[in-house]
């Protein structure tokens, strides 16, 4: 945590409880609205419809993340891998940065340019078991 405080002194973590008694579209969209209103820089979530069957125009994750990207807020979401077919994903909106797991043994290194022109180096190690 100390490294983050030194490199990004204005960084803060905001956590929203989205699904309390079931998970309804209105709850998801409300959470996006709150995050946007709170001025977050990135929204990270690991949710989606189990079968990825919704069209983008009716998927609350796609709709909420679209509103976020319009305000310059990146949404990062897990791809999911529950089907309907092997290697299919749940979250596929082109304005969402979709992340997934893999079983290849490689290292990916890249740089992210942040709003304040700071650069964040990201390393992802994927090890075969």
From TrEMBL:
SUPFAM superfamilies per the UniProt record, alphabetical:
Subtilisin-like
Keyword Lipid metabolism applies = no
Query: Tell me, what is one Gene Ontology molecular-function annotation carried by this entry?
Result: serine-type endopeptidase activity
Q: Provide one Gene Ontology biological process annotation.
A: proteolysis
Instruction: Check the record and name the InterPro entries matching this protein.
Output: Peptidase_S8/S53_dom (IPR000209), Peptidase_S8/S53_dom_sf (IPR036852), SBT (IPR045051)
UniProt KW keywords: Signal
Peptidase S8/S53 domain: residues covered = 9-103
Protein's UniProt keywords contain Transferase: no
Q: Name one Pfam family in it.
A: Peptidase_S8
Record family assignment: Belongs to the peptidase S8 family.
| Record-given protein name | Putative peptidase S8, subtilisin-related protein
């Amino acid at each position: 945590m100390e490294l983050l405080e030194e490199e990004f002194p204005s960084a803060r973590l905001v956590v929203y409880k989205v699904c309390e008694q079931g998970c309804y579209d209105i709850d998801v969209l409300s959470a996006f609205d709150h995050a946007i209103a709170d001025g977050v820089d990135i929204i990270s979530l690991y949710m989606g419809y189990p079968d990825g069957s919704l069209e983008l125009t009716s998927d609350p994750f796609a709709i909420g993340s679209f509103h976020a990207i319009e305000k310059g807020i990146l949404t990062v979401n897990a791809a999911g891998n529950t089907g309907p077919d092997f290697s299919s994903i749940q979250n596929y909106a082109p304005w969402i940065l979709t992340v997934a797991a893999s079983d290849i043994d490689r290292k990916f290194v890249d740089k992210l340019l942040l709003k304040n022109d700071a650069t964040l180096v990201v390393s992802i190690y994927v090890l075969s078991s």
